[in-house]
Amino acid sequence: MESYARDGFAIFGTGLGPELARLRLRFIDVYRRIAGCENDGDIIDLYHGPDRDKWVAVFHQLERLPEVHGLAAHPAILSAVRGMGIVEPALSTFTPCVRVDMPDDDAKWRFDWHQDVVFECGSRNGVTVWFPVQAVGLTRGPLLLDAGSHRQGVLGHGDDGMIGDYSPMDFRAIRTSLGQAVGFSQFLVHKSGRNRSNKVRFTVILRYSDLACPEYQARKYYVQRREPVGGLGVFNQSPRHGGHIGDQASRPQEARP
């Protein structure tokens, strides 16, 4: 995907619109079975009420649903991540992530500007797939990103992984229709948008690494908050040391063992 190489992200169709709509209903059904919620309004009321612990309990079960895990192996998704440079895709994390973004929630639950590489440390050409299970417009909490920022390498960040004071060069607020997903480089600077609607925004996040990446192989496939030897700075080294996301040496067609 030419736009992916240039911008560090690509919006793609999955053909999974009906399946994602059913998955959203499945999420609500789990809230119904465990906490008696019949719709978005009930879930919002539960979140702000005295029994928030029930909301949290259900939240932690959503990522365990078989329907969520099945998305990771869907041919449309694997085809897309291969088009973004992954030769031998494998999940970087043990389970998919499901975000449940509530309307006008406290800012502390929205990730500020950050790069996924700080949290994942997967392969150099790793890809995150951001999958909303409903259409997301500008008021529903869109993905906010800085197009082209993946070429900067790893930026400075605090203990919480956030970059802090950051001024994007090419700000984008990403709108998606049902069935679309966003794939982006683990180096891309991005953050969560505020949900200013009156509905819950459910999103599935899948993170893929490339088992064919020589640098990843040399690290014995360290994943999930385990930094490579020498720290994250190794990702910013010159091509003779493996390069970073913008270097010719790290392009996937040249990354076969």
Instruction: Please state the average pLDDT score.
Output: 86
| CATH class wording | Mainly Beta
Strand content: 15-25%
Categorize the overall geometry: globular
How many individual helices? 8
Distance between the termini: 23 Å
Quickly describe the structure.
This protein is an alpha+beta fold and 257 residues long. It has helices spanning 2-7, 17-35, 40-48, 52-62, 66-71, 75-83, 117-120, 214-218, and strands at residues 9-13, 89-91, 97-101, 127-132, 143-146, 171-174, 180-185, 190-192, 201-210.
What does this structure look like?
The chain has helices at 2-7, 17-35, 40-48, 52-62, 66-71, 75-83, 117-120, 214-218, and strands at residues 9-13, 89-91, 97-101, 127-132, 143-146, 171-174, 180-185, 190-192, 201-210. The chain is of the alpha+beta class. The protein has one domain (2-254): q2cbj1_9rhob like domain (Jelly Rolls, Sandwich). Strands 1, 2, 3, 4, 7 and 9 form a 6-stranded antiparallel β-sheet that branches. It has a 3-stranded antiparallel β-sheet with strand order 6-5-8, with no helix packed on it.
Q: Could you give the topology of this structure?
A:
Elements: H1 2-7, E1 9-13, H2 17-35, H3 40-48, H4 52-62, H5 66-71, H6 75-83, E2 89-91, E3 97-101, H7 117-120, E4 127-132, E5 143-146, E6 171-174, E7 180-185, E8 190-192, E9 201-210, H8 214-218
Which descriptors would you attach to this protein?
257 residues, 27% helix, three-stranded antiparallel β-sheet, alpha+beta, globular, 8 helices
